[in-house]
Amino acid sequence: MDTSQLTPGALQGLRVIEMGQLIAGPFAGKTLGDFGAEVIKIEPPGVGDPLRSWRLLDEGGTSVWWQVQSRNKRSIALDLRQAEGQDIARRLIAGADVLIENFRPGTLEGWGMSYEELAQLNPGLIMLRISGYGQTGPYRDLPGFGAIGEAMGGLRHLTGEPGRVPVRCGISIGDTLAALHGTIGVLTALYHRKVNGGRGQVIDVALHEAVFNVMESLLPEYSAFGAVREAAGSALPGIAPSNAYRCADGYVLIAGNGDSIFKRLMSTIGREDLGKDPALAGNAGRVARVAEIDAAIEAWSQALPIATVLELLGAAKVPAGKVYTARDIAEDPHYRAREMIQTQTTRDGASIEVPGVVPKLLGTPGSLRTPAPRLGEDTDAVLAELGLDAAQIGALHEKQVVA
């Protein structure tokens, strides 16, 4: 991959040590790496990060998900169960700005790498810790994955159809939300370190808290009114009209809940009577008659193909959209015009399309500089940068401390 023409990233010069695995911690590392940070990923020798073998695999037996999650990273295979491996990790962390880990609380402390111990080596260290329930509290030591965080955070209770089993949204959203909150924490702590004497700090992110933080008015409504929000399928409870509507060849989502938008929507579907009804001029009145409004919209949409519905609503400036599949995304010209689909060449020479970088910084944009590494591909180079000579590196290989 030719990186010679890339604009330096906003985080160029930032060194990150990633000790996490699977999704939450590594997604935070990916995000920082996309914007120029040097990310050194520590993996266990042998199989490495389990994500390498998750979901669909390429011809070389590597997950294509891995190609996205671990781009812009270097890999060192290091056995942290051995004292010499722990010592190498400390040396790496001593020269880093950020440490990311998503082990169960207490794991690093068991290796002699508590924040207090590491801060003695590196007072400016910023340590992102992502776990199921956080580093404190009565649930601290329980195992927790993103799915459990989604349940405890209140999200799973709202997903699915009323009266039916709660469903997941189809991706590991709890992990990703935790990673994004962790990334915000890292950037905030970096600013604080810059303006307040160079001291680092710990960022403690719990999976369920990251989910709970985006649950909008869920808790205030219970606190004020005793209202327990329930699952509502594709509708947005308390906001009308906003739902999925059947067309002749599928479904479209229509958000006609703005007061003026609602009038344009009703005009488009031939229901001027509803658009001019003073009782429906505001959201509260529309919510009271949402079933009637939804039925009127679907009576119009179900006789038309999706393309026609979108064309008519677009002309009326009513927000609407098709439910995209992966194929729809890959074929959409807007995705490509915005560079949200990019081609990446893997270490094995295969070409694969992957998501672009979000958000878009116009002055210092993120970029795909290097493909995801093979396991331990950068071990010897990283050790050499620490000052170890060939004989010392060879001895560590013989002891299987590194690979």
Automatic annotation (TrEMBL):
EC number, as in UniProt: 2.8.3.-
Keyword entries, A-Z: Transferase
Recorded superkingdom: Bacteria
Gene3D superfamilies the UniProt entry points to: Crotonobetainyl-coa:carnitine coa-transferase, domain 1, formyl-coa transferase, domain 3
Top EC category: transferase
GO molecular function terms noted in the UniProt entry: transferase activity
Name of the protein in its database record: CoA transferase
